[in-house]
Every structure is written in C-alpha cells, then in structure tokens.
Amino acid sequence: MDDLGSAHGYTFATVGESGGVDYTEQNKGITPIFYIEVMPDDKATEEAGAVRMRELEVVRLLVAGDMFNVATHPVTDEIRARFPVQYAAFKAKRQDSHIDGTPLKNWPMIPALRIAEFNALNIFSVEQLAGVADSNINRLADGRVWREKAIAWLASAKDHGAAAKYAAENARLNERVDELTKQMAELLASAPEKRGPGRPRKEVEVA
Questions:
Q1: Fewest beta carbons within 10 Å, which of 131, 138, 160, 205?
Q2: d(Cα 56, Cα 36) in Å, to the nearest integer?
Q3: What does the DSSP 8-state code read for residue 70?
Q4: CB atoms within 10 A of CB 197
Q5: Burial of 182 from C-beta contacts in 10 A (0-12 / 13-18 / 19+)
Q6: How many domains does the chain have?
Q7: Residue 144 covered by a domain
C-alpha cells in the first residue's frame, strides 16, 4: 500500500489543502476517472496464512486534447474535495460518472467516428470540447471547427434554457390568473341575489 507508486507505476502530484480552495482553474480540461484497484494485502496475508487481497480507490486524471498527459493517484480527502461531484457519482455507481456536462454521445450533431476520436483524446463532453486549449486543438481532426460548434451549441442551449424558464414562469402565472378568475366567478355566482328597491309608497288622497 505504501509503495503503490513505485510498485504499480503511479505518478503522484501534490494536491493543495481542501479547506476553502477553489479548484476551478486547476480542474479546467481535467477528467477524473475513479475506479477500484485490487492488490495484494501483505499484512492480511501474513495474519491469515493465505493470500488476501484488498481494494483501493484510485483516480486517473486525463487532460483534454493530450492523450499522453495522464496522472494516477490513490483517492485522498484532497482528491474528494477537488472532484466532489464525480466522486459522488462514482460511489453511486452511475454510468459515465466521469463525464461532467453533456456527453458527446448525447450530442445529436456529432458522428460516432468523431466521438471515438475525441474520446481517445480524453474529450468526453461538449463542454470539454468547447474548452480545449489552443495548444491542443490541432491534435483533433477539424478541431477548431468542432470547438466552435460546441461553443455555439452550448450558447444556444443556454439561451433556450432561459427562454424555457421564462415560458414556464409565464405559463404558471397565466394558470394562477385563470384560477383566480374562476374563483371570483364562483364567489359571485354563490352570493345571495339582492332585491331591487321597492316601489314608492302611494300617497293616500283625502276627499
């Protein structure tokens, strides 16, 4: 366990303290893939007199557009603090838990061939494609074209989302107005009918 890096070829990096740290910039273009590494447990094997294995949570950090830049770490409290959403999805065993955003496979305008090519370069979502750095964009087939398409699609989706929100709010407001109008009509219909003023009293003539 203590020699995980040297024994299994892992690359370690120093992660800052989690208290109050903003990882937004550090996480740009990074895809964390959490998984379980099964390895021998020397201590348990010695105590049991038989081979015992143990599970270790590990994360592989991939850089969008750079298939050779991969770092792997045992999962620590700092890693959990840095990637809380992805780690929670991993613990919940959700499919595609490593993807943050809209998966490329759910983007209607991109062909399967491009998805496979981008996945090979650690690009799994439309958001990641839109954020590929200029230094890596030429590694993608028609990279600049697809990056611009991704940026435009995300902007359009954002505008559509805002429009849908306003439309839903307007629909709820109209429903409320219709409900109040109906309630008012029911109240008026159930109110007792008021009689009009009586005929004026006839004066008695004196002979």
A1: 205
A2: 6
A3: E
A4: 6
A5: exposed
A6: 2
A7: yes
Give mean pLDDT, residues 165-191.
72
Instruction: Give residue 34's Cα distance to chain centre.
Output: 16
What radius of gyration, in Å, describes the C-alpha atoms of the chain?
A: 33
Same domain? For 130 and 79 the reply is: no
- By residue range, what is the domain housing residue 3? 1-99
Task: Write a three-state SS string for 43-65.
Answer: HHHHHHCCCCEEEEEEEEEEECC
Q: Which amino acid is at 185?
A: A
- Tokens describing residue 185: 């009509």
Q: Tokens 């959490």 map to which residue?
A: 34
Please check the confidence at residue 179 and state whether its pLDDT lies above 90: no
Over residues 11-53, the pLDDT tens digits come to 334 444 445 688 888 898 899 999 888 788 888 778 877 667 7
Same-domain pairing of 10 and 81: yes
DSSP state of 111: -
- How would you write 8-47 as a 3-class SS string? HCCCCCCCCCCCCCCCCCCCCCEEEEEEEEEEECHHHHHH
Q: How many residues does the chain have?
A: 207
